[in-house]
Amino acid sequence: MVLHIRAGNPISEPQKVKIRSELPARVTTNDIISTDGLDVGYDVRNDRYYVHKELELGPKQIREFRVQLKDIWVISDDEIERCRQKAVTLVEMLIASQYKEEAAKLKEEVDKGIGMVVAVQKESEIKPGVKPQVHIEGYEKASRIFRTVKQDLGQMENLALAAGLNPGELIGEAKSAPEPKRDIRLKPEQYKTAIIRIVVKNTSPADVRKVTIRRDLPREVKIDDIIDAGGLEVKADPSRGGICTVFKEAVEIPANQSVVFNVKIRDRWNINGPRIEELAQRATNLLERIGEKEKFPEIFSMLEGILAELEKIKNEPVPQTLNEQYVAFFRGQAERIDVVEMKINRVEAALRPMDKTSKWGFKVKPPSMKTTWALIYIILGFLAVMSLLFFLRWYGKGADEKVGSASDDTGKPKSS
């Protein structure tokens, strides 16, 4: 994808012009092929990368920059075909089970969804006349449809497990699987500390200036996280989602000098360690539940891969200076951990049907609907027979009591 960015000088004299253009959401530095000479920055507040530069333009001059990005807004043909073939494999696997009809209906939905995804992507693919925004919107629409496809596929995988079969690699999703949780609770003393350094310079060579200093802190930082505001005042803005701001009015700065404020806060970004440990423990527990590798080799290998991935994230080098790149790194790391957690949630959801059909180590299929109703009718019939016997016994006992009341103590009938 190529983004065209233009900068122009509308006046008849040379002047400096500043360029700043946000890149689309989800773009990281790994997705940038060429900036055409522009610099790359990161907007902490909006969680977006941008390109920028200050340049000198001549009278009425216009310059155009072509920023080239990897096309990350497409579902690959390989991924689509993999899901299609997986549905075929699963429906064939379940053809001799009690889930045959349900699996066939799910496959129909998978095929229908895949057809819609292909059509949407064809319509919005990159070509002359199609704007980047149209391509991105087409991808978002196709992604929503494809997620439904993956959920139908995940349900088919669960049916295979419920039937005591090995579904192979789990590539579907489960509707019941929870979303990743980033709400990491640490004790105050467990947080590291970080310094946000605010520098304001008076560029005038002769004049003293009074300025208002105002800086929004990243969205993760709350009032309680500010240990020392460094001489600045602090407030939170509820209308902007509780964004914290440090500020000070009428700060006097001597000519050609700078003032520095060091805001000491809890490090709310480098906190992924406990989460990594928790996910590794969950993956290990799942391996123990599966037991023998030969039973479900693909799921076993998937969990081993998850543990290796978590170990890699744990040991990757991290930045040491708190700046925009520091925040971007740990936000990106949290997103990578989200992907791992979704895989673990998927395996946990997949193993639930298997557990429900197992008792004392033996797989027992749940009764069919016909069998269930037959059992209900048998129970109801048994209760009806017992009720009838109880009634007859009670009725017979009542008749005996009436005969007894019509006799005297000698057993002879009374005379009138």
Can you walk me through this structure?
- The protein has four domains: 2-69, no CATH class; 73-175; 193-266, Sandwich (Immunoglobulin-like); 367-416.
- The protein has helices at residues 77-93, 100-124, 132-162, 273-290, 297-315, 324-356, 369-405; strands at 2-8, 15-22, 32-34, 39-43, 48-57, 62-69, 193-201, 209-216, 226-228, 233-237, 243-253, 258-266, 358-359, 362-363.
- Helix 1 (77-93) runs parallel beside helix 3, helix 4 (273-290) runs antiparallel to helix 5 and helix 4 runs parallel beside helix 6 (324-356).
- The protein has 416 residues and is an alpha+beta fold.
- The chain is built from seven helices and 14 strands.
- Helix content is 43%, strand content 22%.
- The longest helix is centred in the last third of the chain and has 37 residues, at 369-405.
- The strands form five sheets. A three-stranded antiparallel β-sheet has the order 1-6-3, with no helix packed on it. It has a three-stranded antiparallel β-sheet with strand order 2-5-4. A three-stranded antiparallel β-sheet has the order 7-12-9, with no helix packed on it.
